[in-house]
Every structure is written in C-alpha cells, then in structure tokens.
From TrEMBL, chain A:
PANTHER family to which the protein is assigned, alphabetical: CALCINEURIN B SUBUNIT (PROTEIN PHOSPHATASE 2B REGULATORY SUBUNIT)-LIKE PROTEIN
Protein name: Calcineurin subunit B
Keywords: Calcium
EF-hand domain sequence ranges: 27-62, 91-126
TrEMBL record, chain B:
Entry protein name: Glycerol-3-phosphate acyltransferase 9
A GO CC term assigned to this protein in UniProt: membrane
Parts of the chain that traverse the membrane: 72-90, 96-117, 129-149
Domain Phospholipid/glycerol acyltransferase per the UniProt entry, residue ranges: 160-265
Transferase among keywords: yes
SUPFAM superfamilies for the chain: Glycerol-3-phosphate (1)-acyltransferase
Compartmental location: Membrane
CDD domains: LPLAT_LPCAT1-like (cd07991)
Key word Membrane present: yes
Molecular function GO labels: glycerol-3-phosphate O-acyltransferase activity
A Gene Ontology biological process term: phospholipid biosynthetic process
InterPro entries membership: LPCAT1-like, Plipid/glycerol_acylTrfase
Pathway note: Lipid metabolism
Organism placement in taxonomy: Eukaryota, Viridiplantae, Streptophyta, Embryophyta, Tracheophyta
C-alpha cells in the first residue's frame, strides 16, 4: 500500500463486506484495497477516469468508456460494490443487472433498438456497416419474438440471457 | 450480406500479437446458429475490462517491491536502529567522501586530457575511456556495489551493438565500470561527459526524432573507432521482475546484437528507479544509505538476424534470451504506455474478430 494515510481497519473491512452483500471475502477486500490505492495515485479517495485509462488493458477494451461512466469517481465502498457483480458468488439477476446498465445509457429501465445498435457498434467498430448491424439485430429480435419498436426491460434480459448461464467471473489476486 | 468491410487502418506489424499473451480463458469460439442471446451477451468483454481493473500486467511491471521490513519486534528493532545509525552516520559520510575524491580525480584529469591532447585523438580517447570507467567504479563503490560479471567481457569490434534490460540509471554505471560503452539516452541536462564517449541523444516526445536517431545509430555502429554502443531497448525503467517489449530500433542496424542480462538482488535494497515516485537524487540517496547493491551481470552469446526473421521477431527472441537468463517474466506492453495511451489498433483487432464471428455464424443456417 502506497499512502500511509489510509489503513484499512477490521471495522472498515466489515462495512465494505456488508455494502457488497458479502460477495467478496475479507481477504479479497484487502487485496482490492491495495489495488485501489495503487490506481488512486494521489490518495484522493477515488480513481479518476484518467487513472483508469492509464491501464492499457482497460483502455483498449471496446466497452471501456461505458464502464468508465459507471466507475469514475467511486469511493472504495462503491468500487467494491461495482466489482461484486464479477465475483464468484452473485446470482444471475445480479450479473445481468450490470449488463443491463451498460445498455441502458439513459437509465430509464428500457433498452431500445438504438441502445442495442450503439453497443453493437462499440463491439464491431468499422468492421460492420450500420446497415449490416441493423439487419442482423432486426432479424435476431424478430426470431426471438420481439420487434424493432419494442423496448427490452430487465426481465426480458433475464429471459434472453438465462441459458445456458452467464460466466462473468474475475479472480482477485490474494497474496 | 456476408461481406466484411475492410478497415481503413492497416494491420500493425510493429509489434507481436498481444492476444498471444493476454488471458483468454473465458473467450471460447462460439459456434452454431446466431441467436439474440449471442449479440446481447457482452459478458466476455465486460469480464476482460473488470479483470483489467482488478489486476493488469502493465501496472505490475512498474510496481516497486521494497524488501520486507524485518524490524518488527523488541529485539530486532534495536538491531535495526543500530543499523540505521551505522548506515546514515558512518557509511553514508564515508561514501560521500569516496565519491568526492573520485570526482576530484576525474575532473582534474579529464579536462587536461581533453584539451591538451586535442591533436592525439587515439590516445586521448583511450585515456578518456579509462577515466570514465574509473569514475563509474567510484560510483559503484559509493553504494558498496557487489557486482558479479559472468561471461566473456565485451570487446571493441565494429558492427556490434549491446542490449540490456533496464531497471534504473545505475544499470549504465554498473556496465560502464567494466567497459566504456557509448549509450543512447533520453535527453536530460547534466550528462555532458558522456559526449566524449560518443553518446546519442533522443527525445521521447518528438515523433520525427526516430528517423534521425536511427540514422545516428547506424553511423555510430559502422564507425570502426567508436565505442561499443549500449542500448536499452525497453525504453524505460522496469522493476526487474518483468520485461516490456523491446523497441526494434537496435535490431535493424544490420549488425550483431550482444545481449546483456542484469538482475539485482533485492536482499539489501530495491534498485528499481520508480521515476514516477522519486527523483533520481532521492533514488541515489536511497542507494547510498543502504548496505549494498548486489547484482549479477551476464554477457550472453552474440546473436544475428536469422534468415527470414523480421526485426521484431529478432527483438522478441533476444528479449526471451535475456528474460530467461535473468529470471524475468515477459509482458506484451510497450514501455512508452507509461506516458501515452494505447493505439486504437488493438481495440480494432478485437472488434474485427467479433464482427467476423457474427457474420460467419450468420451464414450458418
């Protein structure tokens, strides 16, 4: 740990554990704290967008700017809560919640056709034309029983993504 | 509808494939008919991003790993205090004296030699080289450097270049003590003695600089009378546990490359100069107030470009040789990412593979 100013006490660890619904173990929380301090270069108490983007593996991810919006400026408690969707223990709805939030940019609980197109654009870049993306999406929506005009809700996502199960686990290195 | 739009940016041949190094456990090649789920399921990409937030190989390269503190109990602590007194009160002043004497000898010999022997270049150069080796030995003594050299000493031959892994500016001094290398380094004030060794300057922030520097390198190497050239192809200091990618500049000069591996023993002090955390003076003071700097230097077998090998492959092969010898792990990152963002070409490769997979599966009915 770099800065001597903030040391994690047992109370702090338990508070964070409570806040993330016990999805991380206490050891993992301590490791995440070390990582948090490593990224938060001047011990501000939060990690700025710039500091996230200084991790090249994160910066070259096609969805990095969407995740950045969700994680920029979070304090440590909320940082752990955010990452808890990627631990080994969350339920399926908890995992799908983060996927839904990535799509639902205006946070109104509905994912429209244009939201879907935007994310597909991030993932495929200039390697598919807009027309191709629209065609593929329309066709697949139609096959699944939706239309271009329908807005997908959280429960629709749960239904679509349920089988065969979502693998979204990140290992926290514990010394 | 199966045609893929080709990207306007060309494939980057400048670096090896990052995908070979990055963990790809969760990304299996999907098969079968395309369904809505496959488009909506962004979990692999999200997992990669979250994985990078939690731990990434690039940040690990530049993490300082100071030796573990051992003064944690009632009888070790007084011993440690005694050690501090000896180090700061006795060793440090002694070392400063040694260094001052060294500088006095060096300066009082260097300037006369440099100016009085203007006409006798060969003799002058030989004496100057000897003097630089001398001052470097004084420096190494000032940190009680225990350096073990393995392998045949470098000799002065034309058409050869030396490359080494980089941990701190003291790498240069440790190597210079044995052989008066010419070196290529980032422009910074206060290193004018190195002019006499034939040093080459570059400026990281200037992009046009690369061609000029490449030309200077080539000229130096082909000159018979020049000092052997030492290059640190990583381009930045790494923490002596990893190696970052080697820049190909040293490997396309059309000459033999002699690898040198340097490994510091952290038992007394961590020699990594974390330039983001401390200035060079602080780093030097830290070295001068520790017990010793212990390191191993291996001069390895000279390598040549194999037929059919590109300079990048050559650079990676030499990096492999050095990393294996010094027990360092390889990562696929460019050291300059410390100062800049990755180019969008890497992102484009991911996008391309995803787009291709979608369009391919669309064809499968």
């Amino acid at each position: 740990m770099g800065s001597a100013s903030s040391v994690l006490t047992q109370y702090d660890i338990e508070e964070v554990e409570e806040h993330c619904d016990h999805l991380f173990t206490q050891q993992e929380i301590v490791s995440l704290y070390e990582r948090f301090c490593q990224l938060d270069k001047n011990a501000k108490g939060f990690i700025s967008a710039d500091e996230f983007l200084s991790v090249p593996e994160f910066a070259l991810n096609p969805l990095s700017h969407r995740l950045l919006k969700m994680v920029d400026g979070l304090n440590f408690k909320d940082f752990v809560a955010f990452l808890s969707a990627f631990s080994s223990k969350p339920t399926l709805p908890q995992k799908i919640e983060i996927i839904f939030k990535v799509y639902d940019t205006d946070c109104n609980g509905k994912v429209t056709f244009s939201d879907l197109i935007e994310v597909l654009h991030d993932l495929t870049g200039s390697f598919m034309s807009d027309k191709q993306r629209e065609e593929v999406l329309s066709q697949l929506l139609h096959e699944a029983g939706y239309t271009k005009e329908s807005s997908l809700l959280f429960n629709d996502f749960v239904k679509i993504l349920d089988s065969p199960g979502l693998k979204m686990e990140v290992e926290v290195p514990v010394d | 509808m199966g045609k893929l739009n080709t990207s306007s940016s060309e494939l980057d041949f400048d670096r090896p494939n990052i995908e070979d190094y990055l963990p790809s456990g969760s990304i299996q090649e999907p098969h079968g008919k395309l369904r809505l789920r496959d488009l909506l399921d962004i979990s692999p990409t999200l997992t990669e991003a979250a994985g990078a937030i939690v731990d990434d190989s690039f940040t690990r390269c530049f993490k300082s790993n100071p030796p573990e503190p051992w003064n944690w109990n009632i009888y070790l602590f007084p011993l440690w205090c005694l050690g501090v007194v000896v180090r700061y009160g006795l060793l440090f002043p002694l070392r400063v004296i040694v260094l001052t004497i060294g500088w006095i000898i060096f300066l009082s010999c260097y300037f006369p030699v440099h100016f009085l022997l203007k006409g006798h270049d060969k003799l002058r150069k030989r004496l100057e080289r000897g003097l630089v080796e001398l001052i470097c030995s004084f420096f190494v003594a000032s940190w009680t450097g225990v350096v073990k050299y393995h392998g045949p000493r470098p000799c002065m031959r034309p058409k050869q270049v030396f490359v080494a892994n980089h941990t701190s500016m003291i790498d240069f001094i440790v190597l210079e003590q044995m052989t008066a290398f010419a070196v290529i380094m980032q422009k910074h004030p206060g290193a004018l003695f190195l002019e006499s060794l034939g040093c080459i300057w570059f400026n990281r922030s200037e992009s046009k600089d690369r061609e000029i520097v490449a030309k200077k390198l080539r000229e130096h190497v082909h000159g018979a009378d020049n000092n052997p050239l030492l290059i640190f192809p990583e381009g930045t200091c790494v923490n002596n546990h990893y190696t970052v990618m080697f820049k190909k500049g040293a490997f396309e000069l059309g000459c033999t490359v002699c690898p040198i591996a340097i490994k510091y023993n952290k038992i007394f002090v961590d020699a990594f100069w974390n330039s983001r955390k401390q200035s060079f003076t602080t780093h030097l003071l830290q070295l001068m107030t520790s017990w010793a700097v212990v390191c191993d230097v291996w001069y390895l077998e000279p390598q040549n470009l194999k037929p059919g090998e590109t300079p990048i492959e050559f650079a990676e092969r030499v990096r492999d040789i050095i990393s294996v010898r010094a027990g360092l792990r390889k990562v696929p990152w460019d050291g300059y990412l410390k100062y800049s963002r990755p180019s969008p070409k890497h992102r484009e490769r991911k996008q391309q593979s995803f787009a291709e997979s979608i369009l391919r599966r669309l064809e499968e009915k």
